[in-house]
Write a structure and sequence with these properties.
By secondary structure, this protein is α/β, with parallel strands linked by helices. It has helices at 18-32, 108-125, 142-149, 177-181, 187-190, 207-214, 223-231, 239-244, 281-292, 314-325, 340-352, 367-376, 392-398, 409-414, 438-454, 456-468, 474-488; strands spanning 2-6, 36-42, 52-66, 69-80, 83-91, 132-136, 160-165, 173-175, 204-206, 217-220, 249-251, 301-305, 330-335, 359-363, 379-382, 402-406, 431-433. The chain folds into 2 domains: 2-255 and 474-488, Glycogen Phosphorylase B (Rossmann fold, 3-Layer(aba) Sandwich), CATH 3.40.50; 275-468, 3-Layer(aba) Sandwich (Rossmann fold), CATH 3.40.50. The strands form 3 sheets. A 9-stranded mixed β-sheet has the order 3-4-5-2-1-6-7-10-11, sandwiched between helices. A 6-stranded parallel β-sheet has the order 14-13-12-15-16-17, sandwiched between helices. Strands 8-9 form a two-stranded antiparallel ribbon.
Length: 490
């Protein structure tokens, strides 16, 4: 099949979070299965251009209608670690994608509405007629609307659309002027509750809802999250829409790229190891302590890697730091927040704990260091309020690091409690807590730390159990292949 991905991110060139890793990993797997895959992205000024090979202009005269004007664009092509990528660069006084960051501006809906129209205009002019267009998150929600209500009339009758929801906490709710911007000049038609109208604001357009309504199939990134967003407050208002379109909706658990996250071949860690050589992991533990100036003592290292925000359980992370330090552990954190108040809070905490030989807080992100933390830690906390999929716990398990997670979303689908899971013992791989409060996470940490100290052989069995799981893109790749074939033949 010929597949085009339209996405705001692709690792490692344009990455904010897990979406970027998903796009890269899925595209790689689809290519292994014999498909032709191309990716269309905005050409951000802040991309990692050192990860793009052979970047050059392939279409220099693309004119995209936007409001009452035409915006001149150049389209570049380059390989991102072997993936074929097209980058759209608009030459506009609005400076759409030259902002120094991918997201975070008040006109984000307008910027990405333009990207949707530009992507389809490029495909039309370049005579691209894929079997499948796979769109990701609210930033691409207008693509299926434009395809089926506009570009189909221009001859683009072949493509079918798969649309993936990565996080319903961000839906792209905006004013109806966005419709006129991209040429959808029937606002009364589109502002119908069964089409694009936001369920909380009758005068607003919901771009994620647009993608759900107009796509041929809708996925989200884990089976448990699919259930949560249909039947709980985690839908953020889209539960009714997902229920109406339930016959074309399902959850597919994300994978991780074992070419990148694999302790047997990882170039970023000093000691490489696998299940049969798991003792070498402790060389990485010593190396982590040496790098972060922690004391070399007989204690477990508990860590956190990720964003610092409400969704990720920032209050529970803070509580876990002090709980671990007072219960015979060392603690390592690597992360930052887009909220300056949260960032400042953790910077103050870093200053407060600066002389503690058992604690290191790294406020920011360092890809190389993250690999060493995964390899050198004994436990990894993921205390999320909600978690559509989560890659942290899957990466941790590959490195023999035992996850301590809250029972939500993809965490429920991947982590099975050492004490209370209904699965057989050889399938249990971590610790799970239910209540989103300090008592919940402390109860799980108490069990994990107790196991590490009192029953080291049982703890090692948990480590090995986690390493045995296959969270590669093999299984989700087959699921997406099946979805594509299903909608292509309809």
């Amino acid at each position: 099949m010929y597949i085009v991905m339209i996405t705001p991110e692709c690792a490692p060139a344009a990455k904010v979070g897990g979406l970027a890793d998903v796009v890269y990993g899925l595209c790689h797997e689809l290519e292994i299965r014999g498909n032709t895959v191309e990716i269309i992205l905005p050409k951000y000024d802040c991309m990692r251009y050192d990860h793009i090979y052979g970047l050059h202009i392939v279409y220099n005269d693309l004119w995209v209608p936007f409001y009452e004007h035409w915006v001149h664009c150049s389209v570049f092509f380059g390989f991102v670690h072997g993936r074929s990528c097209f980058f759209i660069e608009p030459h506009s006084e609005k400076n759409f994608f030259h902002r120094g960051i991918l997201y975070g501006h008040g006109d984000d809906p307008e910027r990405f509405a333009f990207f949707c129209r530009a992507s389809l205009e490029f495909m039309l002019k370049a005579n691209k007629h894929p079997d499948i267009i796979h769109c990701h998150d609210w930033q691409t929600g207008l693509v299926p609307v434009l395809l089926f209500d506009m570009y189909r009339n221009y001859g683009m009758t072949h493509p079918r659309v798969c649309y993936t929801l990565h996080n319903l906490g961000h839906q792209g709710v905006t004013g109806e002027s966005i419709l006129r911007a991209v040429g959808l000049n029937r606002p009364d038609y589109y502002l119908h509750p069964d089409r694009l109208r936001d369920d909380f604001n009758p005068s607003a357009v919901n771009l994620m809802k647009a993608g759900i309504v107009y796509s041929n199939f809708v996925t989200t990134v884990s089976p448990s999250y699919a259930g949560e967003i249909q039947h709980s407050h985690l839908s953020y208002g889209l539960g009714h829409t997902l229920f109406i379109h339930g016959q074309k909706f399902g959850g597919v658990l994300n994978g991780i790229d074992y070419d990148v996250w694999n302790p047997e071949i990882d170039p970023h860690i000093p000691y490489r190891y696998g299940i049969d050589t798991i003792g070498d992991k402790y060389g990485d533990k010593e190396a982590l302590r040496h790098r972060l100036l922690l004391q070399q003592v007989y204690k477990p290292i508990v860590s956190y890697i990720g964003r610092l925000d409400h969704q990720k359980g920032v209050g529970l992370i803070r509580d876990a730091i002090f709980y671990c330090l007072s219960h015979g552990c060392q603690f390592v954190l690597l992360g930052s927040s887009t909220n300056q108040g949260i960032n400042n809070d953790f910077l103050n905490l870093k200053h407060h704990l600066n002389n503690d030989p058992d604690c290191h807080l790294e406020i920011g992100f360092d890809e190389e260091l993250s690999h060493l933390i995964y390899a050198g830690s004994d436990m990894m906390i993921v205390p999320s309020l909600f978690e559509p999929c989560g890659l942290t716990q899957m990466i941790a398990m590959k490195y023999g690091t035992v996850p301590v997670v809250r029972a939500t979303g993809g965490l429920l689908d991947t982590v099975f409690d050492a004490n209370y899971s209904h699965r057989p013992y050889h399938e249990r791989n971590g610790y799970v807590f239910n209540d989103f409060n300090y008592k919940g996470i402390e109860s799980a940490l108490q069990r994990a730390i107790g196991m590490w100290y009192s029953y080291p052989q049982h703890f090692r069995e948990l480590m090995v159990n986690g390493m045995r799981y296959d969270f590669s893109w093999n299984h989700p790749g087959q699921h997406y292949q099946n979805i594509y074939e299903y909608i292509r033949d309809k």
